[in-house]
Amino acid sequence: MATPGRRPRSGRQYAFSLRNLSVCFGLIAIVLFAVGVAVRAGDGTAEDLSAAAVAMGLPALFVVLMMRRRRVAPAPPEEDLLEEVDFEAMAPGEFEQEVADLCERDGCQVIRVAGGAGDLGADVLATAPDGRRLVIQCKRYDPTHKVGSQDVQRFGGTCFAVHDAQIAAVVTTSEFTEPAVEYAAQCGILCIDGHELATWASTGPAPWTE
C-alpha cells in the first residue's frame, strides 16, 4: 500500500531577477569607489599598493561569491512523496500493534494488545479520548480473502457481552463481504476495510469519530 509521489527534477536552475541585477550593480559601484579611493590616497609605496589591492580585491571577491550563491536549489516535486505503511506485509502481531499505535496517535489510551486464541476477539483494548471503551479485532488478510459474516458474528458475540465495548470495530487489510457488513450494521460494529485503514493511517481522523 505505498503511494509514491513524483520524482524531483534533476539539475540546477539559476535565478535572475531585477533584485539580483540591482545587487550586482551596487557591488560593482562599491568596487569602483574602492578603486578610486585607493588611487587618490596612494603615494606609490608598497604598503599603499597592498592596501589598494585589498580594497579592490575584497569587493570583487564578494561579488563573485554572491553570484555563485545565487544558484537556486532544485525545485521540489509537485507532490510530496507519501510512504504509507504496508500493512499487508506485516505479521499478525505487528499488524495488531500498528493498529494500537494508530489509536494511541489519535488520543486513545491503549490498555492491552493481545491477539491469539485466548483473546476472545479483542486484539486491541483501549479507552477513547471521550472515555468510551474501545474494542478492536484485527484481520490481516490478503486482498483476495474477505472478512466474512461468521468472522464478524464471532466478534459480535464477545465484544459487548465479554469486553463491555462501547465502540466495537473490525479492522482488516482486505474487504468485507456484504453479509458481514449487514450484520455489523445491525449490531453497531464498525467495519474498517483496507482503503479506510490507509486513509486513517495517512490523514485520519479515527473512524469512530466520523
Overall, the morphology is elongated
Global structural class: alpha/beta
Query: Spatial order of the strands in the main sheet?
Result: 3-4-5-6-7
Q: Would you state the CATH class of the largest domain?
A: Alpha Beta
Tally of separate helices: 6
CATH architectural label of the largest domain: 3-Layer(aba) Sandwich
Mean pLDDT equals 77
- What helical percentage do the residues reach? 40-55%
Q: Count all strands and give the number.
A: 7
Give an overview of the whole structure:
The structure is a single chain. The model is unreliable at 1-16 and 75-82 (pLDDT under 50). The protein is α/β, with parallel strands linked by helices and 210 residues long. α1 (18-41) packs antiparallel against α2. α5 (178-187) links the parallel β6 (167-172) and β7 (189-192). A five-stranded mixed sheet has the order 3-4-5-6-7, sandwiched between helices. The chain has helices at 18-41, 46-69, 92-105, 149-159, 178-187, 194-202, and strands spanning 13-14, 71-72, 109-113, 124-127, 133-139, 167-172, 189-192. It starts with 12 loop residues before the first strand and ends in an 8-residue tail after the last helix. The radius of gyration is 33 Å and the shape is elongated. It folds into two domains: 13-72; 87-209, Trna Endonuclease, Chain: A, domain 1, CATH 3.40.1350.10.
